[in-house]
Design goal:
The structure holds two protein chains of two kinds. Chain A contains five helices and eleven strands, in the order βαββαβαββββαβββα. In chain A, a hairpin with a 5-residue loop joins β10 and β11. Helix content of chain A is 22%, strand content 24%. Chain A has one domain: Rossmann fold (3-Layer(aba) Sandwich). By secondary structure, chain A is of the alpha/beta class. Chain B has three domains: 211 residues, Phosphoribosyl-aminoimidazole Synthetase, Chain A, domain 2 (Alpha-Beta Complex); 250 residues, PurM-like, N-terminal domain (60s Ribosomal Protein L30, Chain: A, 2-Layer Sandwich); 209 residues, PurM-like C-terminal domain (Phosphoribosyl-aminoimidazole Synthetase, Chain A, domain 2, Alpha-Beta Complex). Chain B is built from 27 helices and 28 strands. In chain B, α10 crosses α13, α20 packs parallel to α21 and α20 runs parallel beside α23. The two termini of chain B are 48 Å apart. The chains are: A alpha/beta, B alpha+beta.
């Protein structure tokens, strides 16, 4: 099992992903510089959080043109697992690997803190260790996390089971006020149609050790490990 | 350039200073040279009004690897690890342009840390604003918090703590003090020294533009309502550029490519160049033709005084210039040789072979005049000792008073602030903001660092000496209650105009108190910053010597948080409560008056209390520990109850008034909770430290905080307090 974490100028959760991936799976992931043009033999490609290119112009809008992205897009098309967290999710939507866009939070402020998520689909390579309906605690940390999509497209997304995580109340009920950023349909994470590309605003790598306040992020990494090497 | 009849005025110098410069130089300095003196001899760069006092601070200790005088102080953490940390003000820029003013304050202090060779792992900020009901204050508050978040979040450096107070004295002159801490290997401390004749001086990072010109002089003047004109004095920050600069700089330090380095802060190239030469006892020249500019047509003095952000000055052996350039190329940053180290002691500015200015570096850095200003005890000092506490002593609806305190701007939840900061990035924050101190684990070690900032300026106003000492004791206690031994401190000394004898008296008294407490608590001062001239239309701020304290915990598994964990635990108070209502938040809330004697401070008791808390934590005897500060015991107990919505059933038995028992702010007290089985061990530890204590009651699962004191009863539902406490600041801050 080999994992790569792509580093853009301005990425700042690259080391956190390396650290949590190691803590959970016991394996060392590689850092890959955005100017590289190939990604040999990785089973998982993580696009980490941060402020790639300062989030200037629009979050993720410049990173999508980095040399590495054509390779990420090519490999995603071949079914390689790609995980975009926070700024990584924004980059994946800009790159066209995931539908929709992430808009400014509804209160127009940056928000950092734990939120509750409901698992909507445990049949993906990223969520098999969760149970549909399970309520998770996970931190968000973003200024632009309000998911938006054309209503017609939203219906398709829902029908295809592509909504993976929704913001919810502690008891698992979902209503608009539970989406701190104003996300459409409380969407916190989605997969592509093939299910091999996941984008999510919450940070699973930030709650993967008890010491940090919880471990609800761990099963996501374990799910990936199992999907790739089987058994487990 | 034609000489004006009083050339010194334009450069913020006095006639006497100008004469001293003539004497030192032995000739009339030209315009550029005088400009160099102007900024280097400003209070902001030269500390001319404060140096004599700062010498009184204890700066030594086995833990101190680098004391004041460098870009930041450094302390040893053991195991070959060290921490660089420092606090700095950005008050005036934030008053004029809150977002950029605060953002560049954060950027500046972060550069100070990585200039030492440390990777920044946490930031804090200490903020003071006027009355939050005022529209302009709301705008400042929103702008400053967004600016701090905007910069720190993008850098990926978690903002983990700080403090925030509102008081009318800050109405026109808010305080924005930013602190940063970085981690490094103890044997790899870099210094801002231009050593080695013939070595190359490189300017790296952003290009130089017209922003922030004369910012250092601006910081050394009072503000007035005409100051919207000063917006061009405020720098503009680019955190993305700084993130690249950070990574590139750490990469070249890791590869041992650098002799010395310094960030460009106040007074830009002038101070960095002169200070680097001054510290090394060398000279250097800068060639302005080689400085990459953002726009054409900058004048010589503009280039030398520009405070464009995100720049660093490196001193490099000639053979390593290309390797440095390669690293900066990778990060798409410019790195340009702009000068060379010399041995003649001169700080010279050139264009090609043409010399524009030439001044012995030492004149700029070490010959700054030192002033002992006249002092005068202000009349209010003795007048305000007479206080009328009848409103409190006459009795109140105590539960209602507690609720009002919990929703008052100075005591309500700070969540609205810290949720705008990424306080988790880096995966080290294991006690998040909202407690007494933040706690960070250190990668590759079981050790952790506690960080806290503090200053109750009402205390300092009413009794500067005692208030200065209390600020230190309080910040140290904040570290001790999480289980960390207070290690060392940085400070940011915010005062009014030192030329006013009453202000200078406050400064001397407060720093004397600070020095005394730092010595008694074993927490040397490793650096800091002085910010004078915090006045608006002639009104000075309350004296605010902000303390940034760093504490060390040997094993983060021993950490303690401030809140009650479960019903049925015993609640005890360590320390003693006295009949002390002076300077209290409760008295201020009821009467609007700030008067009476500040609570007394027994530094020996404070030190023993810190020792007890650290030892009790390491023996895992405590379930929670929290210091009792503003609002007294009642507020402290409420703060312990709210996070998990637990109740408390407490009986106070003492000879005090109910008001003093509930809301008095006696110092050096900690509210602890423990499982009953640990009581015996706790009592024996307390006795061994000769510490007074009393068991107050127990935690409950009822929705009620209940304090009884003789006939007086304070009762209020926990959920009422939670609502009051959490909703107050978002409501008050809403634009």
């Amino acid at each position: 099992m080999k994992a790569a974490v792509v580093v853009f100028p301005g990425s700042n959760c690259d080391q956190d992903n390396i650290r949590s991936w190691l803590a959970v799976t016991g394996q060392k992931a590689d850092l890959v510089w955005h100017k590289q043009t190939s990604l040999p033999n990785y089973d998982l490609i993580i696009i980490p959080g941060g402020f790639s290119f300062g989030d200037y112009l629009r979050c993720g809008a410049i990173a999508r043109f980095s040399p590495i992205m054509s390779e990420v897009i090519r490999q995603a098309g071949q079914g390689r697992l790609v995980l975009g967290i926070c700024n990584g999710f924004q980059i994946l939507t800009e790159a066209g690997l995931l539908p929709g866009a992430l808009n400014r939070n509804k209160n127009l402020k940056y928000i950092c803190g734990d939120v509750h998520l409901r698992v909507e689909n445990d049949k993906t390579a990223f969520t098999s260790k969760y149970k549909t309906g399970q309520v998770l605690t996970m931190p968000i940390s973003h200024g632009e996390g309000g998911y938006s999509l054309h209503p017609r497209e939203l219906k398709k997304l829902q029908d295809a089971g592509q909504v993976v995580f929704r913001y919810c109340a502690p008891d698992g009920t979902v209503s608009p006020e539970d989406a701190p950023n104003g996300s459409l349909d409380n969407i916190a994470g989605i997969v592509n149609r093939q299910g091999n590309v996941l984008g999510m605003m919450p940070h699973p790598e930030r709650l993967a050790e008890e010491e940090l306040g919880g471990t609800d992020g761990r099963p996501l990494f374990v799910s990936v490990l199992q999907a790739v090497i089987g058994g487990c | 350039m034609t000489e004006s009849p009083k050339p010194w005025l334009e450069h913020g110098l006095t006639r006497e200073e100008h004469e001293q410069i003539l004497e030192l130089m032995g000739r009339q300095p030209n315009y550029l040279e005088l400009a160099l003196f102007g900024v280097m001899w400003s209070e902001h760069c030269g500390y001319k009004n404060s140096k004599a006092q700062l010498r009184k601070f204890p700066t030594d200790g086995p833990q101190v690897l680098q004391g004041p005088g460098e870009n930041a102080g450094v302390v040893s953490l053991g195991d070959g690890l060290a921490a660089a940390f420092k606090m700095e003000s950005h008050n005036h820029p934030s008053a004029i342009e809150p977002y950029q003013g605060a953002a560049t304050g954060v950027g500046g202090i972060i550069r100070d840390i990585f200039a030492m060779g440390a990777r920044p792992i946490a930031s804090l900020n200490s903020l003071r604003f006027g009355d939050v009901a005022d529209k302009r204050v709301k705008r400042l508050l929103n702008g400053v918090v967004a600016g701090i978040g905007g910069y720190g979040n993008c850098m990926g450096i978690p903002t983990v703590g700080g403090d925030l107070y509102f008081h009318p004295s800050y109405q026109g002159n808010p305080l924005v003090n930013a602190m940063c801490l970085g981690l490094m290997k103890a044997d790899k401390i870099y210094k801002g020294q231009a050593a080695g004749e013939g070595n190359i001086v490189m300017l790296v990072g952003a290009r130089t533009g017209r922003d922030g010109i004369k910012g250092a002089s601006f910081a050394s003047e009072e503000l007035s309502d005409q100051d919207h004109d000063k917006r061009p004095n405020v720098q503009v920050g680019d955190p993305f550029m700084e993130k690249l600069l950070l990574e590139a700089t750490l990469e070249i330090l890791e590869a041992d490519l650098v002799v010395g380095l310094q960030d460009l802060g106040a007074a830009g190239l002038t101070s960095s160049g002169a200070e680097m030469a001054g510290r090394a006892g060398s000279g250097l020249y800068l060639d302005l033709d080689l400085v990459p500019l953002r726009e054409e047509g900058l004048l010589d003095w503009e280039i030398m005084l520009s405070e464009s952000q995100e720049r660093m000055l490196l001193v490099v052996e000639p053979a390593k210039v290309e390797a440095i350039r390669a690293v900066f190329d990778k990060w798409d940053l410019t790195a340009v040789a702009v000068g060379q180290v010399t041995s003649d002691g001169m700080f010279a500015v050139r264009r090609g072979e043409r010399i524009l200015a030439q001044v012995p570096a030492e004149f700029l850095t070490d010959r700054v005049p030192v002033y002992q200003r006249p002092q005068k005890e202000p009349a209010y000092f003795s007048q305000k000792k007479n206080a009328d506490f009848s409103a409190l002593l006459g009795g109140q609806n105590w539960g209602e008073l507690l609720t009002k305190l919990m929703e008052s701007p100075n005591l309500c939840s700070r969540r609205w602030v810290y949720e705008q900061y990424d306080h988790m990035v880096g995966l080290n924050t294991i006690i998040r903001p909202g407690g007494d101190a933040a706690l960070l684990r250190l990668p590759g070690s079981r050790k952790g660092l506690a960080l806290s900032s503090d200053c109750n300026s009402r205390y300092v106003h009413l009794n500067p000496r005692l208030g200065g000492a209390i600020a230190v004791a309080e910040a140290a206690l904040n570290c001790a209650v999480v289980g960390a031994k207070p290690l060392a401190l940085t400070n940011c000394l915010n005062f009014g105009n030192p030329e006013n004898p009453e202000i200078y008296w406050q400064f001397v008294q407060a720093t004397d108190g600070l020095a005394e407490a730092a010595r008694a608590l074993g927490t040397p001062v490793t650096g800091g910053n002085v910010s004078f001239y915090n006045e608006y239309d002639g009104q000075a701020i309350y004296p605010t010597p902000t303390i940034g304290m760093v504490g060390l915990i040997e094993n983060v598994d021993d950490r303690i948080t401030h809140f009650f964990k479960a019903p049925g635990h015993l609640i005890a108070l360590v320390g003693r409560s006295l009949e002390e209502l002076g300077a209290s938040e409760a008295h201020y809330l009821l009467t609007g008056r700030e008067e009476g004697e500040v609570p007394s401070l027994d530094l020996d008791l404070a030190a023993r209390l810190n020792d007890f808390l650290v030892e009790a934590a390491s023996k895992k005897l405590l379930s929670s520990a929290h210091d009792a500060a503003e609002g007294g015991l009642a507020v402290a107990l409420a703060e312990c109850c709210l996070p998990l919505a637990l109740g408390a059933d407490v009986v106070l038995e003492d000879s005090l008034s109910a008001a003093a028992a509930f809301f008095g702010e006696s110092q050096s007290r900690a509210v602890i909770s423990l499982v009953p089985e640990n009581l015996e061990a706790i009592v024996s530890l307390l006795n061994s430290k000769n510490l007074p204590f009393s068991v107050l009651g127990k935690t409950t699962d009822h929705d009620l905080i209940s304090l009884k004191h003789g006939e007086d009863v304070l009762q209020v539902p926990v959920n009422v307090l939670i609502k009051a406490w959490t909703e107050a600041l978002p409501r008050a801050a809403a634009l």
